[in-house]
C-alpha cells in the first residue's frame, strides 16, 4: 500500500473515503466539524439520532455526505476526550483501518493524525499511525492455496497533518514508521514460517539478503568454524539435530566515527525446540517454531535501523540451531564447557536457550560493545509472572533498564523491570560444575537471567524475555513482531544522544490546526 502525507481541508478531498473522529460526548473533531458545517449539519444530525455515540473504536460509514467531494465519510469513536491518550489514539487508528478493509474504498485520507495527543508531536503521530496500519494489514498466507478475498487492502492511504509547515516532520514520521513496520513484518514472517522452511540456514540467508540490500557486513559461521572457535555450549544444543547450526553476525557502521564502540543485539535462534532429551509435551509443540522469535526480532530491528540510516554502529548476533532428541544429543547430567571457560552442568535439556546465548554473549566481547541487549523466548516462568502484556526486562545497569523501559512506553511495546539480585544466583549452584543450567521452579525467569548475567560482565547488558509477548495463540495465532518497536526506539534514542540531540520524547504539539487551502487529489 502507498502512503502519503498531506495538509488540506477534508471537504476538498476527492477521494473514496475521508476518516474523521467523534468523541464520546458527541463532540466532533476539528476535521469532522468542517465536514459537518459544509454538509449543513448532516453529520451532527446522524449523531443526534444515536447511530454514533463516540465509543472508542466504534466506526460508522456514511455515504454521499452533502456538498463533500468524497464518496464516503468514516466516523471513528475516540472515547472520552479527557481520557484520549496515546493508547486511545492507536486504538482509533487500528479500528479505522480494520473498517476500511471491509469497504471497497481503494484510497482514503485520515484526519485522525491531526488529533492532539498530550506530549506527542506530528512526527510521532504519523509514525505510530503508519506502524499500526501496517500491523493491521499484515497477512501471512504464503502457504494457502487460496487467498482470503474478504479483506481488501486499500491502494493508497494519505495521512493528514495540521499545517504545511508540518509536512517535513510528517515525512520523517512516515519514513520511521515504514522502517519499523518493515522490521516488524520481517520478524513476523520469520516467526510464522514453518520450521521445515525457517532453518538456521534460512536465517543465515535472510541475513545475507538484508546485508546485500542495505550494504551491511555479514559473516556466517558453520559447524567446523564454531568448533574451532570453541562455542561448545552452543554446539551441545545443536548436537541432536541433523541440521547444521549457524552463528550469524551482521554489522552496520552508521556512526560518523567508524571506531565508535557499537551497540550489540543478540537473538536466540532456536528454529525448533522439541526440548531435546527432556522432551516437551506433544500438545502445542507446533508453537515451538516461535522459539526463534528473539532472532527474528533482532534481525527486524537491525533492518529497521539500517533502513533509517541511524548514525550508530550496530552488531547483531544470532546463534541458530534446532534442539532435537537423538542418540548423540546432550543429556541431563552432562557437563559442558562454554566459550568463556565456565563449565555448566546440564540438568534439563529444555533449558537450552541460555546455553546458546551464553556463548553468543561471550562472542560479543570481540566487538568491544558499549551495550549488549539479548532477546529470547527464554522461559515459561516469565509468562506466568507477566502474562502476555509485558516483556521481562533484566539488566546489570539500572540506567540501561530505564532507557529500555522508556523506549517501550513511547511505542506501546512495554517491558517490566525484574530483579537480578545476587541472592537468586545461589539457585544455580552445582556440586560438579561452575553452575547448573537451571535453578529450580521458584523464580525461573529470574534465575535464567542470572545465568546469562555470568557471561555479560564485560559490558552494560540487558536481557529481554519475550516468551509471553513474541507470539499469540488461539484464533489470532501468529508472531507479534515484538520487541522490534522497543529496540528501534532505543537505538534511535542512543543515536540522538550520540548526536547531542534531545531524545525525541514528550515534545508538545501545537493546538487546533487552521484550515489550509489545498487542491484535492
UniProtKB/TrEMBL annotation:
Residues 348-355 form the Cytosol aminopeptidase domain. Its cofactor is Mn(2+). It catalyses: Release of an N-terminal amino acid, preferentially leucine, but not glutamic or aspartic acids; Release of an N-terminal amino acid, Xaa-|-Yaa-, in which Xaa is preferably Leu, but may be other amino acids including Pro although not Arg or Lys, and Yaa may be Pro. Amino acid amides and methyl esters are also readily hydrolyzed, but rates on arylamides are exceedingly low. It is found in: Cytoplasm. Keywords: Aminopeptidase, Cytoplasm, Hydrolase, Manganese, Metal-binding, Protease. It comes from the Bacteria. GO terms for molecular function: manganese ion binding; metalloaminopeptidase activity. Its EC number is 3.4.11.1, 3.4.11.10. Mn(2+) 1 binds at residues 273, 350, 352. Mn(2+) 2 binds at residues 268, 273, 291, 352. GO terms for biological process: proteolysis. Pfam families: Peptidase_M17, Peptidase_M17_N. Belongs to the peptidase M17 family. Presumably involved in the processing and regular turnover of intracellular proteins. Catalyzes the removal of unsubstituted N-terminal amino acids from various peptides. This is Probable cytosol aminopeptidase. The gene is pepA.
Amino acid at each position: 500500500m502507498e502512503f502519503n502525507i498531506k495538509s488540506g481541508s477534508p471537504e476538498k478531498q476527492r477521494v473514496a473515503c475521508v476518516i474523521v473522529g467523534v468523541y464520546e460526548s458527541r463532540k466532533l473533531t476539528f476535521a469532522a466539524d468542517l465536514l459537518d458545517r459544509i454538509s449543513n449539519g448532516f453529520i451532527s444530525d446522524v449523531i443526534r439520532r444515536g447511530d454514533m455515540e463516540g465509543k472508542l473504536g466504534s466506526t460508522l460509514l456514511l455515504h454521499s455526505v452533502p456538498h463533500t467531494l468524497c464518496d464516503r465519510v468514516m466516523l471513528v469513536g475516540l472515547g472520552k476526550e479527557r481520557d484520549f491518550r496515546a493508547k486511545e489514539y492507536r486504538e482509533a487508528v487500528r479500528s479505522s483501518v480494520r473498517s476500511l478493509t471491509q469497504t471497497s474504498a481503494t484510497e482514503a485520507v485520515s484526519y485522525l493524525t491531526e488529533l492532539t495527543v498530550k506530549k506527542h508531536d506530528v512526527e510521532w503521530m504519523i509514525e505510530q499511525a503508519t506502524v499500526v496500519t501496517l500491523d493491521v494489514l499484515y497477512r501471512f498466507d504464503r502457504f494457502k492455496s487460496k487467498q482470503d478475498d474478504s479483506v481488501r487492502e486499500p491502494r493508497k492511504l494519505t495521512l493528514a497533518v495540521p499545517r504545511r509547515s508540518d509536512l517535513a516532520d510528517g515525512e520523517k514520521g512516515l519514513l520511521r514508521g515504514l522502517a519499523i513496520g518493515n522490521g516488524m513484518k520481517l520478524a513476523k514472517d520469520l516467526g510464522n514460517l514453518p520450521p521445515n522452511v525457517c532453518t538456521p540456514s534460512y536465517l543465515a540467508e535472510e541475513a545475507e539478503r538484508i546485508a546485500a540490500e542495505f550494504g551491511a557486513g555479514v559473516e556466517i559461521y558453520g559447524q567446523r568454524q564454531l568448533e574451532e572457535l570453541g562455542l561448545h555450549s552452543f554446539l551441545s544444543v545443536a548436537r541432536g539435530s541433523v541440521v547444521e547450526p549457524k552463528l550469524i553476525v551482521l554489522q552496520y557502521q552508521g556512526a560518523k566515527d567508524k571506531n565508535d564502540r557499537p551497540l550489540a543485539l543478540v537473538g536466540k535462534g532456536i528454529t525448533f525446540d522439541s526440548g531435546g532429551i527432556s522432551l516437551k509435551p506433544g500438545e502445542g509443540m507446533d508453537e515451538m517454531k516461535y522459539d526463534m522469535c528473539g532472532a527474528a526480532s533482532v534481525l527486524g530491528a537491525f533492518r529497521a535501523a539500517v533502513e533509517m540510516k541511524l548514525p550508530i554502529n550496530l552488531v547483531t548476533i544470532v546463534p541458530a540451531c534446532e534442539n532435537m532428541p537423538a542418540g548423540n544429543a546432550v543429556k541431563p547430567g552432562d557437563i559442558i564447557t562454554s566459550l568463556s571457560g565456565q563449565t555448566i552442568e546440564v540438568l534439563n535439556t529444555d533449558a537450552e536457550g541460555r546455553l546458546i546465548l551464553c556463548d553468543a554473549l561471550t562472542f560479543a566481547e570481540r566487538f568491544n560493545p558499549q551495550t549488549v541487549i539479548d532477546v529470547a523466548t527464554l522461559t515459561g516462568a516469565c509468562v506466568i509472572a507477566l502474562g502476555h502484556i509485558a516483556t521481562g526486562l533484566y539488566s546489570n545497569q539500572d540506567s540501561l533498564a530505564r532507557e529500555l523501559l522508556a523506549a517501550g512506553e513511547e511505542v506501546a511495546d512495554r517491558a517490566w523491570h525484574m530483579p537480578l539480585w545476587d541472592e537468586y544466583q545461589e539457585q544455580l549452584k552445582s556440586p560438579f560444575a561452575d553452575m547448573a543450567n537451571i535453578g529450580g521452579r521458584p523464580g525461573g525467569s529470574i534465575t535464567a537471567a542470572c545465568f546469562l548475567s555470568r557471561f555479560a560482565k564485560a559490558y552494560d547488558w540487558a536481557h529481554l524475555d519475550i516468551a509471553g509477548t513474541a507470539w499469540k495463540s488461539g484464533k489470532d495465532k501468529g508472531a507479534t513482531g515484538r520487541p522490534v518497536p522497543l529496540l528501534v526506539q532505543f537505538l534511535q534514542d542512543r543515536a540522538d544522544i550520540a548526536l547531542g540531540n534531545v531524545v525525541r520524547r514528550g515534545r508538545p504539539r501545537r493546538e487546533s490546526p487552521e484550515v489550509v487551502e489545498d487542491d484535492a487529489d
